[in-house]
Write a structure and sequence with these properties.
The chain is of the alpha/beta class. Helix content is 47%, strand content 15%. The structure holds nicotinamide-adenine-dinucleotide and prephenic acid. Residues 296-366 form the ACT domain.
Length: 366
Amino acid sequence: MKQTVFIIGLGLIGGSLALGLKRNKDISIIGYDAQSQTLQTAQKIGVIDEMASHMEEGAALADVIIFATPVNETIRLMHEMSKWSLKKQVIVTDTGSTKKEIMKAALRLKEMGITFIGGHPMAGSHKSGVEAARAHLFENAFYMLTPFENENKKEVKILFDILQVTKAKVVQVNAVEHDHMTAVVSHFPHLVAASLVHQLAGENEQFPFTKQLASGGFRDLTRIASANPIMWRDITLQNRKELSNQLHMWTEEMNKLQNLLLHGEADEIETYFSKAKQVRDELPITTQGAMFSVFDLYVDVPDYPGVISEITGYLAKGDISITNLRIVETREDIFGILVVSFQTMDDRAKAVKCIANNTTFETYIS
Ligand SMILES: NC(=O)c1ccc[n+]([C@@H]2O[C@H](COP(=O)([O-])OP(=O)(O)OC[C@H]3O[C@@H](n4cnc5c(N)ncnc54)[C@H](O)[C@@H]3O)[C@@H](O)[C@H]2O)c1
Ligand SMILES: O=C(O)C(=O)C[C@]1(C(=O)O)C=C[C@@H](O)C=C1
């Protein structure tokens, strides 16, 4: 059955969803973005099938409406939506990183008989904008749905089926639990990353060389601080209660560490690091083989048969030896899924050029 999906906000997430959903030939995508340049680019590079000249126009034609806008803007638009004319059976969803406030705003839609199912794909990047959109962004990532409890079972199933083509692992959670869990693994780490960068910036006057020394560790820890500030302003404001609790716990943890250091408690410090290492090493991502050695290269490739031999073929032609090759089956904190290892840094640098010359796949060095 043909379905029309209307996506509002064609940035990294809206654009990636459009590309992912378009793999299903029965889905046609109408798009809208507040930035006319973005809307035109989305049409030009084939992210959407059709442009809506304004939101109500696209909404009236849609079987599914997806808000992929910053979360405060999504709430504002959900209020406006109550004035739009929509298809009777329309399913409305979003991609926002917070869910409690969004579901609160959805109560008004519910009273009007409009089905709203909260959504949040746990995959993304510090990049934003339609140019960064990728059809395969959600492959193997968790995609959380937060319907109203015990309601809309039929519509949840329809949305679940539509999302299957993105190859995400679609799961249902409750909005309050969602905001607690994402505070721990996503929102609070963002505060920490930003604060570490500020701490480095504070060194600039007296020790300007410090920032040049920021290599692997600092860069790994702070990559996410390069993300869109407006998006993160909205997320952290909406989830501020959870973040305040996390901050409180973190402060206690830091005080505990400070004490151990001040008293030179060598054994306890070692135990502290050992426990952290154990938990970190047991995270799904590392058991799935994502550990990297010094000369690993992450190649952001779509999941289709033959893609590995395509890459290794180009490297062989370029006379570049590889020492290992593996697939990372999650996109939760790194971009590429194909990890190619090299014996030397020089080989890896040659591989970056070789892949850029022969493909459009992006490469990353963790
Ligand atoms: N970036 C991530 O890693 C990530 C991951 C999962 C979910 N999310 C969530 O998805 C949503 C979108 O994030 P993104 O990374 O795609 O951001 P983005 O900045 O790449 O894109 C947002 C787009 O929304 C448009 N927009 C803003 N206000 C609008 C309005 N009133 N009407 C129409 N368009 C409007 C912007 O012009 C922009 O093109 C956010 O709610 C975010 O919390 C982000
Ligand atoms: O990989 C990144 O850069 C992200 O920040 C992605 C990330 C995350 O924290 O994991 C960020 C916010 C989203 O709501 C979901 C995913």
